[in-house]
Amino acid sequence: MYQAIEDNLKGMEIGILVNNVGMLVFFNPTRFLDMPNIDKAIMDTISCNMLSLVQMTRIVLPQMVERKKGLVINLSSEAGSRPYPMGILYSSSKGFVDFFSRGLHAEYKSLGITVQCVMPLFVSTDMTQNMKTNIFVKSANDYARDALNTVGYTNRTSGCLSHALQSYALDLLLPGPVFEFLFSLKILANFFKRPQKKDEKNKKK
Ligand SMILES: NC(=O)c1ccc[n+]([C@@H]2O[C@H](COP(=O)([O-])OP(=O)(O)OC[C@H]3O[C@@H](n4cnc5c(N)ncnc54)[C@H](OP(=O)(O)O)[C@@H]3O)[C@@H](O)[C@H]2O)c1
């Protein structure tokens, strides 16, 4: 598939690459081995959240480097900033995006390429079952506008003020070890639980 994409993009001048594609196989907190269809969940998560981003970067970056100009925006997640027990497959894949982006930025900054890693909390989309927007949950349009306004100012961002404050509060109130401990007591896992439409769909597949 990537060879076909590469062939079709040949000769095109691409200034901005947004690696947005991503999937969350189970929205509800699920222990690793309890995921139904675990083999498929692993392969889907890795190929969708990680492999696609690396391959698209390999394909598009060379002509940016040649012109000494380009912007790559990679969608990670707050879930990639620390391990999220009961969601480790998604969380780890987004951690990969964060590390890859930061490393890539360091490697190519001097060659005129900006790499930005965007790490949202909750945005109302299909992935989050179009949850109601409020001061914590942004609409997709509002979030995209705010996040794009940060381009050129920061190469690693929560994308908007509300999410930056939530991320800061999480770090302050629930540092990594406390967060993981609360998950092990199932306190946080229950907090994140939601009525399940999407997971039921995945179980049936
Ligand atoms: N929404 C949030 O709260 C949130 C929070 C943190 C990070 N993120 C990240 O933000 C990015 C965008 O997510 P979103 O909320 O907009 O999710 P979404 O509504 O589910 O959209 C995901 C996008 O990825 C595409 N996609 C998913 N699985 C695919 C597959 N197997 N093959 C090809 N395309 C596939 C979808 O294509 P189709 O439209 O064709 O289905 C869609 O364009 C993702 O990387 C996600 O991890 C989202």
UniProtKB/TrEMBL annotation:
GO terms for molecular function: oxidoreductase activity. Keywords: Lipid biosynthesis, Lipid metabolism, Oxidoreductase, Steroid biosynthesis. The keyword Electron transport does not apply. GO terms for cellular component: endoplasmic reticulum. Belongs to the short-chain dehydrogenases/reductases (SDR) family. The lineage of its organism: Eukaryota, Metazoa, Chordata, Craniata, Vertebrata. It comes from Leptobrachium leishanense (Leishan spiny toad). Its main location: endoplasmic reticulum. It is found in: Endoplasmic reticulum. This is Uncharacterized protein. GO terms for biological process: steroid biosynthetic process. InterPro entries: NAD(P)-bd_dom_sf, Sc_DH/Rdtase_CS, SDR_fam, VLCFA-Steroid_DH. It holds the Pfam family adh_short. It comes from the Eukaryota.
